[in-house]
Write the structure tokens for this entry.
Amino acid sequence: MFAAVLLPNFRLQAALRFREELHEKPVAISDEDEAKTGLLEVSEAAERMGVRPGISSPQALARCPQLTLLTRSRPQERAAQAALLEIATAFSPAVEATADGYCTVSLQASRDKDWPALAGRMVEALAALRLSAQVGLGPNPDLAFLAARHARPTLVVQSPGAFLARLAIHELDPPPELLAVLQDWGIHHLGQLTSLPRGELMDRLGPEAARLWERAAGRTERPLRLVQPTEEFVEAYEFEREIDTVEPVLFLLRRFLDQLALRLGNVGRVAGRMTLTLALANGGAHERSFTVPSPTAAVDVLFRIVHTHLEGLRLEHCATGLQLRIEPALAERQQFQLFESPLRDPNRFGETLGRLAALVGPEQVGAVEALDTHQPGILRLQPPRFHEITRGAPLADDLAVGLPLLRYRPAVSAQVHLVLHRLISIVSEKARGAIREALGPFRASGGWWESDRWATEEWDIALESGGLYRLARAGHEWRVEGSYDVPAVAGGEPAAAGEEPGHAALQNLIPLPLADLKSPPG
Amino acid sequence: MQYIELHARSACSFLRGASQPEKLVHRAAKLGIPAMAICDRDGVYGSARHFTAARKHGGRAIVGAELTMDDGSVVPVLVAEREGYRNLCQLITRAKLRGTKTHAPVRWEELAEFAAGLVALTGDEEGPVRRALARNDGDGAMASVRRLTAAFGEKNVYLEIQRHLRRGEERENDALRDLASAAKLPLLATNGVLHATRAERAVLDVFTCVRHHTHLDAAGRLLSLNDERHLKSAKRMAALFADAPEAIANTVRLADRLGFVLTDLGYSFPRYPVPDGETMDSHLRKVAMAGAIRRYTRPGPDVLAQLEKELALIEKLKFSGYFLIVWDLVNFCKQENIMVQGRGSAANSVVCYCLGITACDPIAGKLLFERFLTENRKSWPDIDLDLPSGDRRERVIQEVYRRYGKHGAAMTANVITFRGRSAMREIGKALNFAPDVINRFSRLFASGDFPHTLELDSQLKQAGIPVNHPRTAAALDLYGRIYGLPRHLGQHSGGMIICQEKLSGIVPLENASMPGRVVAQWDKDDCDDLGIIKVDLLGLGMMSVMQDSLEMCKARGRGIELADIPMDDEPTYDLLCRADTIGTFQVESRAQMATLPRLLPRKFYDVVVEVAIIRPGPIQGGLVNPYLARRTGKEPVEYLDQRLEEVLERTLGVPLFQEQLLKIAMVMADFTGSEAEDLRRALSFHRSHERMDEVCVKLREGLARKQVPAEKAERIVQSVQSFAVYGFPESHAISFALIAYASCWMKVHRAPEFYAGLLNNQPMGFYSPSTLVEDARRHGVRIRPVSVIESDWLCTVGGDDSLRLGLCYVRGLVRADGERILGERRRAPFASLADFQVRAAIPKAALRTLAKIGAFKGLSEHRRAAQWQVEIARDPEDLFAYAQAQAARALPLQPMNPLERVRADYTGTTLTTGPHPMAIIRERVPHLWRAAELIHAPNGAPLSIGGMVICRQRPGTAKGVVFISVEDETGVANAIVYAKLFEERRLCISEEPFLQIDGTLQHAEGVTHVMAERILPLLFEDLATPASHDFH
């Protein structure tokens, strides 16, 4: 006996798993390229209003103005598919998964022969994961599949011949061209198909049609194409009550890691990345991924990584569930090169970064990456890519222009005295005094299409008393953005009296590329 | 201090500039800049518009262009004198005709050949010099300077310097100064203008996204750094370049050198080769007189006097060559058996009539010659030729190219601009809206670009972008700015320009997308502005239909010439009066059909009025109802002023034609010929309302001078303004009415040939082939289905006046396969379906379609039998298999039922020759009234109609009202939907193939329709439908 487990309207279900408020509403889901495919799936409420898969969304809205339109979410679909397979494998290790939202389970070895009850338990188990399933049982996989399509929510096929004859031909999912020919012939049901002489059918439409005929007659026997156990190592637990201290979490995590390390070891893998998910009482979740700097299966190392994170973690809501997922990796073998010294112990460095993150916040730790924008000073912190750290990585060309700027974060408020648009003097925490020379303004603006549009007007100034600074003006407010680091080679010898040293410095400030600083002319 | 902007790009650079030339000129005038050079990319696309706008503002339009070189750099050049302009046009033409549509660079080595009369700048960041400097390649920069000076001469190269308040630019500017002093070249300040004002920088950023196929969130530093590249005043530029005043002063010095203006084009129309001893004038006179004898047999004194008057004026204006060339082209058409008819104001000329260019007698029609030609006329007269669309028209176009060469003739351009759909599509993409949102927004534009009643923000909301969406404001703002900006260059449907010398020295030419076509960089309005003559070779689908139908009549022994069709045929006027005009020319739209029973045409001039009256001009001017009321005697015929009686007599005191408005202006406001000419041009232009406004000011002044009472004056001005939208000249209406009447006559007296002609020239007109077939059946034409035994490639008429559908209607059957079927059939009739399969050897998909639609009738028992048979592969060399296939076997498939046949017909041929789908499902909708029964229902009765939607029309003049026609097995029922209901049910109306319309029946003046109150989809998923022709 085989069980087919089908999650009808799979893409819609996946999208609605955590949106109960829409479960009874008219909802439809479409692909990103809806213009070509039309709607993919529609809810029952939508169907009652005349909305059908395949029609365009404007047509659907014409029939049902209150329709909610969703775009399919592949991550949610993957999660739902993983949940389906987990449940299926709990009933039998022999599982075939040939399509999203659908799997076939061989129950040949099952001791439990109460098929309706068994099918019911499958439905319940999936319902617990917020998935609505139809389970069909039949003597071969194809029959089980067809039974699943008609199950409400379960169906055990007792009389295959009678069951098949009334089914529509498209339920066997024949190739579109074959289906079109059969429909043109007026063949709409499997009973009609099997009434055609099989040999002549094959003469005309080829072996594909003959196979279809066999399936329509319920005569196919085939081995399942078993799925390999997933390489996603997940352990999860739902707390019976809300948890507001870290100890029970740590206790469970240690046990999780013991089990996962053992499973990893069995397939010769180590942990490359871990994702910790805490389901929260408010229905949300706290999720954090950790790159294991040097992939390992050592429980202590892995535990320290998550422990460090949890130590500094403060959540507004109690935890109600815990999930730890490990992405496996091959164990790494690395030989240090003669003249390069990458991190000696990346795991320890990673742990150090973790501790720093716990102290200053994860958003304050990482490797700097310049963004592709004209907006000055906009950088992003990226998680460090431990094995790409090499010395002497070239800076982008545009960053290499001018003197190094020591940027104040945040910028320092200043008062600038102007006379006839000329900058005369400045008072601020960082720079103060008469302005000898000023270059600017330099204007940049962008993001005009959003509410957080930006515009900057910058000046570079040299003070009478020495020092080069970058100023920015927004309206009437001035800020000191940073100071330029003027190496001796840049300015040369201090200018003699009457030579306008500030101007000379400013001349160097803008035009000199970094390369010139390294090898000054002369 | 003065400053001249010498490097600006307009939106005519297609996605590389954000402002229209007119806007740049307007801004320059406001800033006090006396002259400006627009250097569009690889062309002079915006130069004519720049010139026209500058002339109006008293500024000077300097011509230039940015040339993309073969190394990817861009060199701006400016025209100093006429030779330079000719060189620039020829250089661009050479590159354009050599390259592809998107990549046609100029070669460095050919610059020198065309450099005379041109001045080169070193360019902006895309220029060769700054590109080298950006690579820190000082030597390369100097080499580029040397290359330019070698080509253009040292006196003709300027080092361009710009300041856009960008970090690092001073380093470059210092280097440019050094280069200038080393090469002894003058510095020239420009702002590299890309938009007129700061605000249009957003448009430029969106265009950048379009060009790079990206969106604003991902475009990063591709976007502009700031909004500094707008037009700046002399004061601001002087302040910016306070350290280099000579760079500012040089702009004025250089501008003084650039003396060329577009009035110096040196264009002349080709000379017509005349026999020895003749001049063009004498030759024209001869052929016109000969034509007069042919036309009138014995031309009377009135004809001769008019002829003499016209010939004298033509000679005076030196237009004889033009008339001879058009005459020659018409002769070519006649020799090649291509139907041709002149339209437009040429129909007012007896010379055109005598030359055979036009078909109606202007003397008999009392047409106003001055509408066509006056002594004060500034531009060339219009002679438009209507030709059958398709291959026949293409032959004429290719003949023009053959006569004048690839560099001597060109199609005028048609600048494709951003309209509602395209504008929001690109804006949506740039703003990173989801594709389905953009699609939904586009679908809501069901009424095309007619002004529609859905507000833009509501439309965005319905598409899924709420008003409070963070990017809605940007979308709305951009929409207003981008709408109407040029997108790319297309070609005009039929306007051709030719030249005595090389046309490529007058305007750059480039390859059109269509093979064998060359297109000029100016559109027809630009050409008109600059005095370049154009001949419109326009394709009319109905001309093709008429020519095909008349040839079929001739072949069937009941031939008639177009000119011999009697103009007083009662049955034809009966057909017009009952608005039975589906398929005819010009009088088949819903609005026309609703007017015909009110106007009740009984003579040819009524048809002329009918053709002219349903146009935006008369409709918006509120002239339709007064005319109809006067015609039926409900309102007395009276004149705004007794002086206008002669002008308006024929149209019962209501101005319906452009000529009448000109006359009114002349009589009531003392417009001179020249002013009337301005008015005529304003009425012909649809580019802007500005021209119209200017003329109206003059008109008001004139009316006031003549002391016309204010109320009367206002009505006159309103009438004129309404014609600015769109109105017909009388001559044009007469030309169209001739074809319209002829098409109606054919429908009455040669119905099978007429419908065959219509079906063979689809798509055209308002209705789909399915509707035409239904209409043909209602007119007693028996429609026979496609048959491989009987059908030709095109639809044909049988001996019993039945119409046989052609193989061209079989979806998926290509012409070559169709011809093979016909060839084999000519060789020997098909003995069996298997014989057909072996000999015709057509692809399986087409074979299946033929079987499905019953095209094998006569070779197989029924459709399903054929379907069962065609699936067997036939190998012509396998004799046994062939014999086996002949052996009769029990057929396992059931014959198709009626519903299945209809479905198969629609999917296989887009129409059915069997019962109408509504007849089949009639039992399911017993509550719906049949179309033919509506006439019997009482006025005001609440009822429901329903059927297949064949037409949804929302004329721009109808204040949002939508006209829907639904077809059932008895005919067509019409409904009127007000804007409010339309907006509520917009998607239902525009998307559903079958509709049920509940409402109140109205019979009024012979017109029956349902005033819709509720609209529902009729959901029959087991039916396929043809596409309806929507929203004309």
